[in-house]
């Protein structure tokens, strides 16, 4: 009985530490990191994020190749044709809520598009742009 | 008449194939795909059931996830082990090889080509044509791992990719 309670407690602790975050939490984290990399950091820009999102960065693909030019709408994978749910949090509340997922996809997709990891500054700009897209956002 | 014969031939071919699949694998009734597998391997393409490739092919796919058909599909080591175990336990029993080398693309396997040789060429070739990796364009149950003929519907021209 005691060991069962311990297991239950450990599980509850695990759930608590893996709690959902909000896009604002991620933006704050990116800002802290960006400031650490560049003391002159002056905040994120949705316009810069939009340009970054649409650019091919010297390769074949952009973020928009799969996520679409309107991240408030569903995209389509450029190779497989599979539907990709909207990336913008205002249109899809599941986005930017799980650190492991956010980290995984930036790692994969920045490698695909830029052949390098994205900087915190770039991630923050993109997130700022995404927050203006989709339901309730400015179009 | 010709169409009728072709349909009959197709359905009997499929029936034989279904029987063979049932006899050669111990996965009937088919278990649902594990959620972790669907999350990791069903985001960019439909989560392909293990029975689509033999174990040697899946091992090669899993070993190269960081350069997966030109994209980075890397997963953490623990997840990779779980995916590998699931695929090993549900893999096709007959080899999926070409000249003894494990094939990585499902669409290049002999069984896939045979199953799809009735599909008119225009479905693959025209602009806005079906992309062969997009099973769900025709197999409406593909997201749930079902490829039964009942859920099969060829898209209209210019409809799905």
Summarize the structure.
Chain A is built from six helices and two strands, in the order H-H-H-H-E-E-H-H. Chain A is mainly alpha-helical and 139 residues long.
Describe, in plain words, how this protein is organized in 3D.
The complex is a heterodimer of chains A (139) and B (161). Chain A is mainly α and 139 residues long. Chain A has one domain (21-131): Orthogonal Bundle (Cytochrome Bc1 Complex, Chain D, domain 2). Chain A is 52% helix and 3% strand. Chain A has a two-stranded antiparallel sheet. The longest helix of chain A has 16 residues, at 2-17. Residues 1-17 of chain A have low confidence and may be disordered. Chain B has 161 residues and is an all-alpha fold. Chain B has one domain (2-151). Chain B has a two-stranded antiparallel ribbon. In chain B, helix 3 (55-63) packs antiparallel against helix 4.
Keywords for this structure?
heterodimer, A: 139 residues, mainly alpha, 52% helix, disordered N terminus, B: 161 residues, two-stranded antiparallel ribbon
């Amino acid at each position: 009985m005691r060991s069962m309670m311990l297991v239950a407690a450990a599980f509850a602790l695990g759930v608590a530490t893996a709690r959902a975050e909000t896009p604002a939490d991620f933006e704050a984290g990116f800002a802290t990191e960006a400031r650490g990399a560049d003391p002159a950091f002056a905040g994120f820009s949705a316009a810069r994020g939009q340009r970054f999102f649409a650019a091919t960065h010297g390769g074949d693909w952009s973020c928009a190749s799969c996520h679409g030019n309107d991240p408030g709408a569903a995209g389509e994978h450029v190779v497989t044709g599979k539907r990709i749910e909207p990336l913008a949090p205002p249109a899809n509340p599941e986005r930017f809520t799980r650190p492991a997922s956010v980290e995984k996809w930036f790692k994969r997709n920045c490698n695909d598009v830029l052949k390098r990891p994205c900087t915190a500054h770039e991630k923050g700009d993109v997130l700022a742009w995404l927050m203006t897209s989709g339901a309730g956002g400015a179009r | 008449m010709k169409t009728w014969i072709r349909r009959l031939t197709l359905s009997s071919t499929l029936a034989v194939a279904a029987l063979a699949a049932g006899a050669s694998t111990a996965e009937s009734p088919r278990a649902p795909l594990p959620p972790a597998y669907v999350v990791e391997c069903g985001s960019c393409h439909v989560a392909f059931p293990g029975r689509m490739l033999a174990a040697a092919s899946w091992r090669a796919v899993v070993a190269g996830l960081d350069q997966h058909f030109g994209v980075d599909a890397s997963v953490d080591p623990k997840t990779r082990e779980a995916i590998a175990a699931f695929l090993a336990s549900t893999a096709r029993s007959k080899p999926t090889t070409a000249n003894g080398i494990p094939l990585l693309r499902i669409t290049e396997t002999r069984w896939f080509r045979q199953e799809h040789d009735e599909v008119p060429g225009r479905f693959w070739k025209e602009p806005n044509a079906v992309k062969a990796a997009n099973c769900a364009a025709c197999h409406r149950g593909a997201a749930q791992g079902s490829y039964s003929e009942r859920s099969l519907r060829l898209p209209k021209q210019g409809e799905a990719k």
